[in-house]
Specification:
6-stranded mixed sheet; 205 residues; 6 helices; single chain; alpha/beta
Length: 205
């Protein structure tokens, strides 16, 4: 598995292109902006984009979804709770159409020979998910290096995000963590040093 990260847009959103090196099939996670940069990398490496994964519906993670979708024809996946309902103007939820497929807890989406396992990790938004693939966690804005996502937006919940952090910390072994902003980290580092994770682990009983 090859992971290529891009920091895109004014908010420095992390977009990841995750490739099965055997088949050259890839997934694009959170194409928030700068579709040209993302698509150039895909084209330059002769990749076949099979999926576009959205960890949550906020605009800084979805701004280039349509451009990447139109260029690649890949299926777009998002949790239904982070899609704007008809007639509601809500920039914190994705306004999608026929390109969307909804995923949920326990779903497994194949990309080449890779498998992406969907974990519902609400708190930053109601429909936030973490994607688990091999030894990597793509946590969106649920878990950051040394911090976690804010919960003061509509649909956010500190109680929910603490539960999500506790769940991630409870995964056996160490994991590479690729968040929606800032630097990558490891689950073991976050268990030891992240104050939000430490608080969540103390509450597990």
């Amino acid at each position: 598995m090859l992971i290529k990260g891009f920091s895109v847009g004014q908010l420095g959103t992390n977009c990841y292109v995750v490739t099965d090196e055997e088949t050259l099939c890839c997934a694009v996670i959170d194409p928030g902006a700068e579709s040209g940069t993302i698509l150039n990398y895909i084209d330059d490496n002769n990749l076949k984009t099979e999926a576009i994964f959205i960890t949550h519906g906020h605009y800084d993670h979805t701004g280039a979804v349509i451009s990447v979708y139109e260029a690649t024809g890949a299926t777009v996946y998002i949790h239904a709770l982070d899609v704007s309902t008809e007639g509601v103007d809500d920039e914190l939820r994705y306004k999608g159409g026929d390109e969307l497929r909804f995923y949920k807890e326990g779903d497994v989406v194949p990309v080449g020979k890779l498998e992406f396992h969907v974990m519902e990790t609400p708190g930053h938004s109601r429909g936030s998910v973490t994607l688990r693939c091999e030894n990597a966690l793509f946590t969106g804005d649920t878990l950051f290096r040394g911090s976690c996502g804010r919960t003061d937006f509509p649909g956010g919940s500190m109680t929910a995000i603490m539960g999500s952090l506790r769940r991630l910390a409870s995964l056996e072994g160490d994991w590479e963590v690729y968040p929606g902003h800032m630097d990558a980290t490891t689950m073991e580092r976050e268990r030891r040093f992240n104050p939000f994770v430490l608080d969540a682990m103390e509450d597990r009983d």
